[in-house]
Amino acid sequence: MSAIPSSVPERLEDELRKRLASLDLEAKVRLLSGKDHWSTYAEESIGLRSLILSDGTVGIRGVRWTETGTSINIPSATAIAASFDPELARSMGSVIGAEGRRKGVDVVLGPVVNLQRTPYGGRHFEAFSEDPQLTASMGAAMVAGIQSEGAATTAKHFIANEAETDRTNSNSVVSKQVLREAYLRPFEAIVEAGGLGVMSSYNKVNGTPAIQSELITEVLEREWGFDGLVVSDWGAIRNVDAASSARGGTDLAMPGPKTAWADGLLDAVREGRVPEALIDGKVLRLLRLAARVGALQGIGPLVDRETLPTPPLAEALGVGRKLRDAGTKGMVLLRNEGEVLPLPPSVGKIAVIGPGAVTPRTNGGGSAAVVAPAAVPPLEAVKAALPDAEIQYAEGVRPYTLVKTLSAANGSAPGGPGVVLIDFLDAESAVLGSERRHRCDTLTYGMGYPEGVPEDAVTAIRASTRLSVDAAGDYVFAAAGSGYAHVTVDGVTRLDDELVPINSDAVVGMSLPPQGLIQLSMTPERPLDIVFTYTPVQKTVASLRLGFETAAPDPDALIREAVEVARGADVALVFVGTSSEDEAEGFDRSTLALPGRQDDLVAAVAAVAPQTVVVVSSGAPVLLPWRTHVDAVLLSWFGGQEMGWALADVLTGAAEPGGRLPVTFPADEQNLPSPRPHDGDVVYSEGLDIGYRAHARVGTAPAYPFGHGLGYSAWDLSAMSIEKHAAGVDVAVTLGNVGGRESRQVVQVYVSRETTGVVRPALWFAGAAVSEQGPGAEETVTVPVPRRLFEHWDEGSGSWSLEPGTFRIHAGTSSADLPLAMDVAL
Ligand code: BGC
What we know:
Blueprint: H1 9-21, H2 25-31, E1 53-55, H3 77-81, H4 86-102, E2 107-109, H5 132-147, E3 152-153, E4 155-158, E5 171-173, H6 176-183, H7 185-192, E6 197-200, E7 204-205, E8 208-209, H8 214-223, E9 229-232, H9 242-247, H10 260-270, H11 276-292, H12 319-330, E10 332-336, E11 349-353, H13 378-385, E12 390-394, E13 411-412, E14 420-425, E15 431-437, E16 443-444, E17 460-467, E18 473-480, E19 483-489, E20 492-499, H14 506-511, E21 515-522, E22 528-536, E23 543-550, H15 555-567, E24 571-577, H16 598-608, E25 612-617, E26 632-635, H17 643-652, E27 681-683, H18 692-698, E28 715-725, E29 728-737, E30 743-752, E31 764-773, E32 778-786, E33 792-794, E34 799-801, E35 806-812, E36 820-825
Parallel strand pairs: 1-2, 2-3, 4-6, 5-7, 5-27, 6-9, 11-12, 11-24, 24-25, 25-26
Antiparallel strand pairs: 7-8, 10-26, 13-17, 14-15, 14-17, 16-23, 17-22, 18-21, 18-23, 19-20, 19-22, 28-29, 29-32, 30-31, 30-35, 33-34, 35-36
Helix pairs in contact: 1-11, 2-10, 2-11, 4-5, 5-7, 12-17, 13-17, 15-16
Bound molecules: beta-D-glucopyranose.
Residues 55, 109, 156, 233-234, 367, 507 line the site of beta-D-glucopyranose.
């Protein structure tokens, strides 16, 4: 086959149609379901190879979710959006893209451009922002970055998929205007930026399953001209009617091989219930994407991966440094009384408190999680950054119930290397294959067994380890995984039970597995042999986990111990946050309070420490009831694998806390949208008033407003001017660094309208510009505001419309601090 440059689209289209025409119906239908969990069928007769797909939001998980396939772990989306810098999103996208190249991935399942409609949303951390425009600019930049490395992206989840509760059945009820102005906006921006794929979501939207919503065919494809691939969310085309789901706009049903289409689509076409032309359209989209990523023989890809530099070991390309800088640019300093931060190099005694100082939360739970090669504990990073300080650590609290993962410190696999020996057993308990594993948090097999292990024959998985301890005491061993657990300790059965997860969502079974606990009294002289035989409920979610730690101490005693450490220190650094038990895929949060006794811990420490700095690691807003009683509050989000170093940089002033809030931090839980369906419906009754816009409407103040964040210098915004042109307006803002050190400021532009005849937010974000300046320096930055941001969706005419009149343009440093304003008549 001759090479056809993709820069000749008509010729490419002709060629794709020619190849399509050579396929019979059976071959075409076969291509529309996955071959397995992460790949598609090849079709040799037309030179099509199999495509590999992989999640996709903070790294590239690859086809095996284990420590044998680690991935660079960038900060999660909210942390990236906090930079308000699309260039940073693009650069992080290119890190993901390069990882995709290293792991042979053609289609990256991301980014998530659903909005942070409610802080309760379980996958809030995977999304960029509560604001449509900020999400749009971050999402489009991330897509450009990933695709610059030759992979395709699938922006997800299309559409109105802002909640996890009963996520495969719930129906999002949302008006056309709100869809257009808020929830569709990021997808539209990504199509404009050349995004090659979209993932259709599990939920229904206004009564129709999103996989077959006309928003795909009518808006995404016809109106916006998207000619890429629409892939279903995993399993969304399983228990549905083949014909009606295929008549909708989704092109590829994943994962395979069992999908409703694999079972029933061929007959549906033969019986005339689905036109063959529709099948042709779907296959054509698949071929187009395949051509663009170089999976169609003889057709050059959009980006020739062969010509890009060899995919890196993280260090070789300085990715570590890049991730560390990105981490600091996203960290948000909410409060800094008496300029307690940055810590001076002369700081004497520091109390470091909280388990997050030792086990950083680098990413959130669920399909987004990757296994990072390593992540330095913030405690170690702070020690390295302040070598002369006297640092004492106290655990303070255990705000989680999942027992800590068994590690090499206490576990060794019998008869050889590794922490645990895994045997795959058939129905007669014969061993089908074995492997030695070095980590126990990632024993996931349902999506792929090791080579040579016949998946269909596996009935149970046996994990064997020898436990040993350094100090005599009480310990707890946890056997976790949805299914049946049988555990012997030195040959004696100690657990024989069914372990049932909190809900039936397959992803929850993996990321938040139910656990069975065994209390053990141990001494260093007497190790114990553990054999955990696990029979998964379904083989597709075969995921087990082994936990081990000291028996839970008395919570009051833990706090008392931390208070004693804090009392003798000059400054206390308290690490609090959420865990994968609170923020993950497959369920929503029921409270915004920090889990466990963390609030009590902060209050108790703040009462005795001369200065208290609280570092919050979460992917979503949490309540900070003690915020005015502590000196500083710093958000590190889920900051990626370099989060420890980035934190040390910010705490010591080696870097600015560069981030600003991409989401409102509420003061309490009043009037927040719920993610929970009522009678099946999640009603988007707040309309366009998401997050900060709700506060602007009624004039209330949250704990910390959208856009807020402090740096280590002082800035002055002195002047603003506006230039009108056909495509919108340019807003120029002059600002100066009037403090004593180099710093970063995010100038934000918002729009409002005094008198209007249409439903619109009281205030809306229109764009931002970053300024980085030394002390005394001044510059003028320009924020372009496209015309679209002055328009509204007119439901009557079904089109965008500009209401003539005066708009007010505001500039400042948060949605609640807008010192400059000018009117513009449009
Ligand atoms: C998630 C998607 C993800 C897919 C594959 C689904 O459960 O909703 O975001 O890409 O699984 O892991």
